[in-house]
Amino acid sequence: MSAPRLLLARRITPAAEERARRDFDALVADHDLDAAETIAMAKQHKAEALLIGSPCKLDAAAINALPDHVKVIANASVGYDHMDAEAAKARGIVVTNTPDVLTDCTADLAFMLLLAACRRGYEYDKMMRDGWGIRMGLADWLGLKPSGKTIGIVGMGRIGRAMAQRARGFGMKVIYHNRKRLDPELEQGAEYFADLKQMLPHSQILSLHLPAGGGTLMTRETFALLPKGAVFVNSARGALVDEDALIEALSSGHLFAAGLDVFRKEPDYDRRFADLPNVFLSPHMASATQETRDAMGNLALDNLAAVCAGRPALTPV
Q1: Which residues of the chain are modeled with pLDDT < 70?
Q2: Up-side HSE of residue 138: CA atoms within 13 Å toward CB?
Q3: Among 64, 136, 175, 300, who pairs with 74 as Cys (CB 3.0-4.6 Å)?
Q4: Cα separation, 168 vs 148, whole angstroms
Q5: 237 flagged as catalytic
Q6: How is the chain split into domains, by residue range?
Q7: What is the homologous superfamily of the domain 103-281 according to CATH?
Q8: How far apart are CA 202 and CA 263, in angstroms?
Q9: Which residue among the candidates 166, 237, 243, 293 is catalytic per the annotation?
Q10: Catalytic residue among 161, 166, 177, 284
Q11: Of the listed 69, 266, 291, 311, which one is catalytic?
Q12: For the segment 268-289, what is each residue's pLDDT rounded down to a tens digit?
């Protein structure tokens, strides 16, 4: 039996790409394809399976332009807000993503953002690269002690719970807002707030861990509800944040600092953030470890192989 015909429309790790070439009749793109390129190359290759990434914006019109031989679309990511999954399902196309395998690395980076924001990581690093050369007294260049703080977590899914676990290791009190309250064994003693606005005044550190799609969560109003001197961390989605409001809160001193891995416009993010010394920045790299990116690629390929063989997808959306 011939191997399934795959269009690899995004670049993946060498180990995962080697497997794709071995197990599939794979057409491998040399760059991350956009929607038009994906549609054209899927037709050219008569692909049954597509492996895509966020640069491939498959809205309903693009989904409907895909050839009929496409059976399955695998996202090598947890998020799939770059595509219209419901439009794909309406055409009988299975859509998958890669949950679980990137939980730990995403929480690790989110906690790095938290620590670097609290302890003025950008400013200390810049000072050293500029040659140091100044003496600092006991009252100079002080950060915040993260240990013992109260952390508010918005979105208590896998990654939010992993963030809570790391926070407990630093003696933090964990409070959270979620669509529904978790079972006690998942809460692990965290305090639930059904109303986000009621939780914010108690959040000395606020960390977002929820998908986009529900509109802008952090606005001038919600930032103002945080206590003065709070720290804001976002490793979820840039669309959740009014960036003008965030910049105002950082510039005014209402927020002590922020750690950001995601932005409303990527990669051409708002460069005003780079001018703020109290922001620690990362270019959307939460899952970027060798181990995790290999696992993401392999899970995407596992899903494609299963569907092409007539079996259920492992992680359908």
Answers
A1: 1
A2: 0
A3: 300
A4: 9
A5: yes
A6: 5-101+290-308, 103-281
A7: NAD(P)-binding Rossmann-like Domain (3.40.50.720)
A8: 25
A9: 237
A10: 284
A11: 266
A12: 999 999 999 999 999 999 999 9
Q: Are 246 and 220 in contact (CB under 8 A)?
A: no
pLDDT at position 116: 98
Output 30-39 pairs: Cβ under 8 A, ≥24 positions apart: 32/56, 33/9, 35/59, 35/62, 36/62, 37/9, 38/7, 38/9, 38/62, 39/65, 39/66, 39/67
Is 123 considered catalytic here?
no
Q: What does the pLDDT read at residue 32? A: 95
Q: Is 17 a catalytic residue?
A: no
The verdict on whether omega for the bond into residue 267 sits within 30 degrees of 0, i.e. cis, is yes
